[in-house]
Amino acid sequence: SQQGEEDPQALSIQEGENATMNCSYKTSINNLQWYRQNSGRGLVHLILIRSNEREKHSGRLRVTLDTSKKSSSLLITASRAADTASYFCATENNAGNMLTFGGGTRLMVKP
Amino acid sequence: GAGVSQSPSNKVTEKGKDVELRCDPISGHTALYWYRQRLGQGLEFLIYFQGNSAPDKSGLPSDRFSAERTGESVSTLTIQRTQQEDSAVYLCASSPQWGGGNQPQHFGDGTRLSIL
User: Which of A7, A20, B20, B33 could lock B93 by a disulfide, CB 3.0 to 4.6 Å apart?
Assistant: First the structure.
C-alpha cells in the first residue's frame, strides 16, 4: 500500500487562485518531498521538508509538515495555467534511502 | 549538465516478447531507482541500486522482472515474456545519496511500454 495519500485526487481552479493539496502518511519519516509531473514527462523535484521542520517556502510554494498528524500540505499561490500538472508527495524513510510516493493530485489551472 | 536519460522513450511490443529498458543516471549519482507508473496513478517502486551494494529488489512484481547496473553507471531493466499488465511508464531516477539522505531524486522522462 502507498505510504502517502494525496487529497484531493483532482483539483480545478481559475488562474490567480490558490491551490492547496494535502498528503497523509503512516510511518515515521526522514523527510517529505513534493514533486510535479507534467503530462508525458518525468517527475521534477519541488521542495523537501525535513522531519524537524514545520514550514518551508520556495517562490510561490509553501509547504507545511505536521509530524504529530502525519500530514503535509502544499500551497501554490497565485496559480498560473503553467502550473497545470500532477503533484505527488513522497516520504523518505529513516534510513534515508527510499522514497514512497502517493497517488498524486491532478491540478488544472484554467486561464 | 545532462539529466537522467532513458531509452527508448516509447516501446510497443507483442505479448510474450522480452524488452530491455535503459537508464543513464546523472554522472556521480551513486543511487539509482526504477519505478513503474500505471496510467493516472502514482509511482510503484521496483528496484534500488546503491553503489556496489546488493540491490534492493523488494519491489519487483515477479521473477519476469530483473535489473542490472554496472558500477555507478548505466542500468537496464529487463522484462521477460511480457504480459499486457506490464503496460505502463517505467521511470528511472538517480540521487547523490550520501549518508543521511535528504537528497531529492532526479527523474528521466520514462519509457512508455505498450504490450499488444
Answer: B33
Chain A residues whose C-beta is within 8 A of a chain B C-beta are: 2, 30-31, 33, 35, 40-45, 48, 50, 88, 90, 92-93, 95-104, 106
pLDDT at residue A3, rounded to an integer: 59
CB B41 within 8 A of CB B26: no
Q: Do A42 and B110 touch (CB under 8 A)?
A: yes
How far apart are alpha carbons B51 and B26 in whole angstroms? 13
Verify whether the Cβ–Cβ distance B104 to A33 is below 8 Å. yes
Residue A55 to residue A66: CA distance in whole angstroms: 9
pLDDT digits (tens, 9 = 90+) for B62-77: 999 999 998 889 999 9
